[in-house]
Amino acid sequence: MVDLMMAVQNLQQFAFWNLIIRPPRAKYTKDVLGPIDFTFDGGQGRRRDVEIQTKRGSHVACSHFVPVGRGMDRVPVVIYLHGNTSNRLEAWDLVVPFLRRGVSLFCYDAAGCGISEGEYISLGAHERYDLADIVGHLRKSPFCGPIALWGWSMGAVTSLLYADSDPSLAALCLESPFANLRQLVEDLAQQGTQIAITLPSWLIDPAIALVKMRVQDLADFDIDELVPLESAKKARIPAIFISRRGDTFVSDQHTKDLLKNYAGDCEHIELEGDHSCTRTSDDIKHVVDFFCRAFNCHAIAASLPSLVVENEQGSCSDELFIPEEHEQKHPTPRQIRPVTDYDPDSWCDRPISFEGARSKPRCLDAVGVDFPEPRPRSGHMVFALDRPWPSIADDLPLPPIAAEPPRAQPLGNHSRGSGVTAVPRQEAPIFQPMKQPA
Q: Would you call 251 helix, strand, or coil by DSSP?
């Protein structure tokens, strides 16, 4: 009995439940977000920052990276969802690979992470409802094309929990998700690698009961009810699962269970490294190619509505405003074309490189952040904007931080310069509503 009381006191002292609902929070200041307007490989991009209030009442900080010069096109969107100890800076190394293919990238700090509001996280239990609000916000725009989700760890679970309720999503990339939260907690308790104390086997069940009670009181969800495996049985969206051979945080059994029960078409990639190992440029290219094939299946309509709806006062509706990056002084008739000129028939699997320079996800410790430095190779490819753009750029290797285990890194290497250049922002022309022909 004395041993039991001491063990419970140790659990309370180290607050084991914080591993689930309040891991280290990666905060940052807005100045590390970098320039709003920038160029890359001859193309131009723009970042639009926005705060979205969810139905739960929290304001979440978001960034939307878009390719400039698409006219009246609907642009496909990939929403990136970060891990439980990270923030939206984790997606910074994905900006150029997506914009180069004519795909926009939306990322945000989940509630309780980064600079968004919120005290606790829930590993997807509540975050899926916030994701629904964000998807709804994007779909209000007439310039939003098909939407896909890329989530890592907590973000992957959030994506999977939401996906079974939204069959209109184009594709999913699920990186290191768990299948059952209670099983994950039991695994971590038995390993003793993620907490400061080692629990004897006879104490695991009482410890989990204590954790369950504290999580319910503080974060208002039941760990026994967080079972992404059940959502996998109902989700039919094309998906790619990514796991790591050396992952000691989420065991490979979770991935096997999800793959076995996933209702839709899916593929699996097993990479070297641990749970927080960073991605190589080849890893990123494989996923970007997967999304582009999925977007091709969601052909975009030939044209947008011919007029902008006006409200009673005669001004444009706030929900239908045209962002600067889409404005054209002299619009020309559009023709049907895919969201990219990527030819799925010409694609073939290539081996994933496990060595070489790794692209680094971004996180709090970024000081003097800049965009990833593209280093174009010889040769050119023609993409959706009908411009010759250089091929893949290798992202710079950067040092990691200590988090889930930490995977995010500061952006850029100032001693070597940057291939991404900030562009002075100019005043946008005033948009005049289009008149309906008499």
A: coil
**Exposure b/e, 186-196, CB count within 10 A at least 16 = b:** ebbbeeeebbe
Domain chopping of the chain, boundaries: 2-301+334-422
pLDDT, tens digit only, all 438 positions of the chain: 445 555 555 555 457 788 899 999 999 999 999 999 999 887 899 999 999 999 999 999 999 999 998 777 889 999 999 999 999 999 999 999 999 999 999 999 999 999 999 999 999 999 999 999 999 999 999 889 999 999 999 999 999 999 999 999 999 999 999 999 999 988 887 776 555 556 667 777 888 888 899 999 999 999 999 999 999 999 999 999 999 998 988 988 999 999 999 999 999 999 988 888 889 999 999 999 999 999 987 544 333 343 333 344 443 334 434 455 444 433 333 343 343 444 444 434 433 333 333 444 444 344 343 434 333 334 433 333 333 333 333 444 444 433 444 554 444 444 434 445 555 444 444 334 444 444
Tell me if residue 400 falls in helix, strand or coil. Answer: coil
Pairing of strands 75-81, 421-422: unpaired
Burial of 102 (0-12, 13-18, 19+ CB in 10 A): buried
Nearest to 385 by CA among 106, 1, 41, 133: 41
Q: What is the DSSP letter of 219?
A: H
Say how far apart CA 365 and CA 28 lie, in whole Å: 7
CATH architecture of 2-301+334-422: 3-Layer(aba) Sandwich (3.40)
What is the distance between the alpha carbons of residues 154 and 82, in angstroms, rounded to a whole number?
7
What number of other Cβ atoms are within 10 A of residue 306's Cβ?
8
Q: Pull the structure tokens for residue 215.
A: 């999580």
* 265 Rama class: left (phi>0) / alpha (psi -120 to 50) / beta: beta
Asked whether the beta carbons of 35 and 369 are under 8 A apart, the reply is no
